[in-house]
Each structure stands twice: as structure tokens, then as C-alpha cells.
Design goal:
Number of helices: 3
Shape: globular
Radius of gyration: 12 Å
Strand content: under 5%
Distance between the termini: 17 Å
Helix content: 25-40%
Length: 78
């Protein structure tokens, strides 16, 4: 089953240049994370990124390495 994407219509980033969310380095991720801070669909965005294993960019306010840490802590489905 494909993940739902209707949350994207309410995302704080919907009208922004997507390159903001794919910074050159994690040190440059602060502007993207600032947009995510007040986003009403931040949780849905992060869940989408974790579920679909997005490896690049800032999703739901977390960088690539931060999402890797979350994935390692999540229990795996049996």
C-alpha cells in the first residue's frame, strides 16, 4: 500500500524552492529545519521519509543522519 500524500498540500514548504531542503552539508540544514519547526504536517512528513527510506535532504525537521538514528531505534516489524 502506497503512503498517503495529502499532507503535502498543507506543508509549510509547499511553495518554497526544494533545494532549501537538500543542503550541501548537514551544517547548512538550519534554514530548512526552521521551516519545519512550525509546520502543521511535520509528523506526517517525517513518517513518510522514514517509511519510504528517504536518504537525502531534510524531512520532518530531521537531517539524513538524524533519520538514520531514528530508524535504528525503531522496532522492526515481525
Amino acid at each position: 500500500m502506497a503512503p498517503r500524500l495529502d499532507w503535502k498540500q498543507r506543508a509549510a514548504c509547499r511553495d518554497l524552492d526544494t533545494s532549501l531542503f537538500f543542503p550541501e552539508s548537514e551544517a547548512d540544514a538550519a534554514p530548512a529545519k526552521a521551516v519545519c519547526t512550525g509546520c502543521p504536517v511535520r509528523e506526517a512528513c517525517l513518517d513518510f521519509a522514514l517509511t519510504t527510506r528517504q536518504h537525502d535532504g531534510v524531512w520532518g525537521g530531521l537531517s539524513e543522519s538524524e533519520r538514520r538514528r531514528v530508524r535504528r531505534r525503531r522496532p522492526t516489524a515481525a
